Every structure is written in C-alpha cells, then in structure tokens.
TrEMBL record:
This is NodT family efflux transporter outer membrane factor (OMF) lipoprotein. Its main location: membrane. InterPro entries: MdtP/NodT-like, OMP_efflux. It comes from Chitinophaga dinghuensis. It is a lipid-anchor. It is found in: Cell membrane.
C-alpha cells in the first residue's frame, strides 16, 4: 500500500483497530460452581392421595377462596406480574425497528462564509432553476412530514439476552405470586385449625368447670356434715376459679385468632364460621421419604432458579455491549423549504444512514457494568443453592414432626383415658373416706391438663400437614 492509499484509508484502519481492541477486551463467559444435587428419592415416598384428602372442610374451603380473591398482598402480587408481563412485551419487540410519524418545522440562518450560505446565495441567482426552487430568504425555513425509523441489528445477541432476562423475570414474578398464594392458603388453614382447637379447649374447660362446681357443692355438703374441713372447700373453690379464668383466656385467644384470620381474608373483624368436628379425625400416617421432583416444584426454588436465569441473561447482555453495534436510520416523507410546496411530487424525499458504533473510551464503564451483572448472577446462584438446601431441610423436618406428633397423640389419648378413670376412682374413694381432697384435686387438674395437651397435639399434627403442604409448593 503506497503512502497516498494509506492516507486514504487511515480512518477506516483506525476504526478497525478500535473494533479489534474492543473485542480483545471482552470478558469471558460466566461460569458458576457445580450445583447442589437433590438426593435420590427413597422407594417409600409420600402418599399425596391421602394428603390431598386431609383438608376437606367446607368452611375452610370457602375461607381459602375468599383469601385468594381478596387478600391485598396477593392483589399487589398480581399487579407485579402484570408489570413484568409488560416489560416482557417491551423486550420481545426491542429487535423491531422504531417507526415514528414526524411533522417538523425549522429555520436556519446560514453564515455568509459557509457552504450552505454560499450555496443558497448562488442558487437564488442561478438562471437554471424556476421560481419555486429559489430559497429567497435567510433564515431559511424547512418543513418535513413523514416517517423516521431507527433499527439496531442484534449482531451479538444483546437484545435477545435482554428478552431472555425479561422472560425469566416475568416467570419469576408468576412463581412469586404462586409462592405467596401457597403461604396465604397455609396461613388460612393454620388459623382455621387454631380456632377449631380453641373451640375444643373451650368445651373441655367448660366441662371441667361443671365437674369442679359439682365437687365444690359436694365438699360443702360434707363440711356441713362434719366429714370435710373448710380448707378442703377453699381448695376446691380455688381450683374452680382458676379454671374459670382459663376459660376467659381461651375466649380472648379465639377473638384474636378470628381477627388475624379476617385480616388475612382482607376484611374487617367478623365471626368465622367453622365446623365443630373439623379436627376430630387425625390425618393418615405419612410414609417416609422426600419426593425430590416435588421439592423442585416449590415456588421459592422455581423463583430462585428463574432469578438466576435472568441475571445470567443480564451478564450476556453486558458482555455483548463490548462488541460494535450496527444501527440503520432510514426516513421518508415530504421535505421542502416552502410550506406551499410541501406536498408536491418534487418534495418527496428519502434517505438512510447506517452506522457501526463501537465503544472506545467507555471500556471502564462497560467493564464495571459487566462486573455488577456478574456479581448479581453469582449472588442469585448462591441464593438458589441455599434455597434448595433450606427446602429439603424444611420438608425433612416437617415430615419428622408430623410423624412424631402422631405418635405423641396416640400416647396422650391413652393418658387422658387413664386420668379420666383416675378422677372417677378418686371421687369414689373420697366419698367413702379412702382418699383425701388433695388427691381428688390433683386428679382433676391432671385430667384437664392432659385433655388440653391432647387438643394441642392434634392441632400440631394438622399444622405440620399444613406446613408440609406449603413446603412442597402447594397442589
């Protein structure tokens, strides 16, 4: 290449050098550590048929339907899904050219010693043009009516990566709403069975109040007959007063739980309809083993996985920003320097500009943006791994809890039966003079505590099943 040719193409060579330098500084693709492997499912897995048949109470179903339709957190989550869906539509159409209808008017005062100024002066004096072609004035007006477009060609997949990120975030928002729905359903069921348990506690307490009141009357008669002391009467009365106070405490718990449930339903406090025997039957015994495929269907794990996919797409887009971008800018319409000539055939104009742009002096900014995207992706990856571990641990803990609580319930049933027989025996021995009043009081107190514990144990089993429903991502 001779010297004159070198000067002719030195601008192009400089541009090619800048492009090559920019390409050399492109970061490597993102690499993440190995993922946590979900343990192989045991042969004896969870029987979901019996599980889905546990919560069949009609009042509970009605409350869940109300919560899913009126819970304010769910309504807000639905709006977030709509927003993410709109972002996805924007990203999906980003590869298309933008076309804008334009109506513009301008005026330019050209300097006397500029190409435009000299050219317009010469044109106005030229004998080769007609009167419509003469500009005649300075400042010179210009009118345009037509269309202008801008189109970036996705050479390196930057726009596609942005679309992939938007799609993953949309799916993540949908998974987040499902997660929230599962939590709301679990919350409604928990409060509902808390109310049922409190109702049962109230029945037990009131039955014991009746028995203890009868005992006070009996010992008072025995005192009048000289067979009991005032101390015995006082002890029986104290026990009765303690149980009556317990009744009021349970009534307050019922009111507070109803208010909490109503708030979850998105409505003001009001009575909650519920069955009297909603928790009278224990759920079927669970089989051991965690179904790994169901664990991966948890909404929080799906959401974390989709967030990871979105951040990885962000990294690809940030990496593609290091490469040159090709932009085409065409236009067409009517263009004239006189409004009266604007829509004449001779005013039709069109043009196109193609440009290849490469970053040269903003490499540090691009590198910083890439580092931010990479850090976000690694953060999402570690969060995804931790979510899997937490989910597996939660399911394992809950299944163990349900199994152990069921065993406790069976033992407590036997304890209650034994203590109820002990109360009858103590009353009989007391009336015949073979037992003192302290033994009767102790027996009555023990059976009350055992009956209340039995109710709470049954509630714990149901709460375990509810937690398992949530831990497995709902159905």
């Amino acid at each position: 290449m001779n010297k004159s040719s070198f000067h002719k193409y030195k601008g192009l060579l400089a541009l090619l050098f800048a492009v090559g330098a920019g390409a050399c500084s492109v970061p490597k693709h993102l690499e993440t550590p190995p993922s946590v492997a979900v343990p192989v499912t045991a042969t004896d897995t969870l029987d979901m048929t019996s599980f889905t048949q546990v919560f069949q109470d009609t009042h509970l179903k009605s409350l869940i339907d109300t919560a899913l339709a009126a819970n304010f957190d769910l309504l807000a989550a639905a709006q977030r899904v709509i927003a993410a869906q709109s972002q996805l539509r924007i990203a999906r159409n980003a590869w298309l050219p933008t076309v804008n209808g334009v109506i513009s008017a301008s005026a330019d005062k050209f300097g006397d010693y500029t190409m435009s100024g000299v050219g317009n002066f010469d044109t106005n004096l030229s004998p080769n043009i007609d009167k419509d072609q003469k500009v005649g004035v300075n400042p010179t007006p210009e009118f345009f009516v037509g269309f202008r477009s801008n189109w970036e060609i996705d050479l390196w997949g930057k726009i596609k990566a942005q679309k992939d990120a938007a799609l993953s975030r949309y799916l993540s928002s949908a998974a987040g709403r499902k997660l929230l729905s599962t939590q709301v359903v679990a919350g409604v069921a928990t409060f509902y069975y808390d109310l049922v348990a409190l109702d049962n506690e109230l029945v037990i307490i009131r039955r014991n109040i009746s028995l203890q009141d009868a005992a006070v009357k009996t010992v008072s008669i025995q005192k009048d007959g000289g067979r009991a002391t005032e101390l015995a009467v006082q002890q029986f009365k104290a026990q009765l007063l303690s149980t009556q106070a317990l009744e009021n405490n349970v009534k307050q718990q019922i009111t507070a739980t109803e208010n909490q449930l109503n708030a979850l339903l998105g409505r003001l406090p009001q009575p909650i309809k519920r069955s009297t025997d909603a928790a009278s039957v224990m759920p079927a015994t669970l089989h051991k083993g965690i179904p790994g495929y169901m664990l991966l269907h948890r909404p929080d794990i799906q959401q974390a996985e989709l967030d990871l996919a979105a951040t990885k797409a962000d990294v690809r887009a940030a990496r593609a920003a290091f490469f040159p971008s090709l932009t085409i800018t065409p236009y067409t319409g009517f263009n004239a320097f006189k409004a009266g000539l604007l829509f004449q055939p001779g005013s039709i104009a069109w043009g196109a500009l193609g440009g290849l742009t490469t970053p040269v002096f903003n490499q540090k900014q691009l590198k910083s943006q890439y580092n931010i995207s990479q850090a976000n992706a690694m953060t999402a990856f570690y969060r995804y791994q931790q979510t899997i571990i937490d989910g597996y641990a939660e399911v394992a803990t809950v299944m163990s809890k349900v199994e152990n609580e069921q065993a406790v319930w069976l033992l407590k049933q036997q304890e209650v039966t034994t203590l109820q027989e002990a109360v009858s025996t103590a009353n009989l021995l007391f009336t015949t003079g073979y037992a003192n009043y302290l033994e009767v009081i102790t027996a009555q107190k023990s059976v009350l505590e055992a009956e209340l514990t039995l109710v709470n144990t049954r509630r714990n089993v149901y709460q375990g099943m509810i937690t398992l429903y949530r831990a497995l991502g709902g159905n």
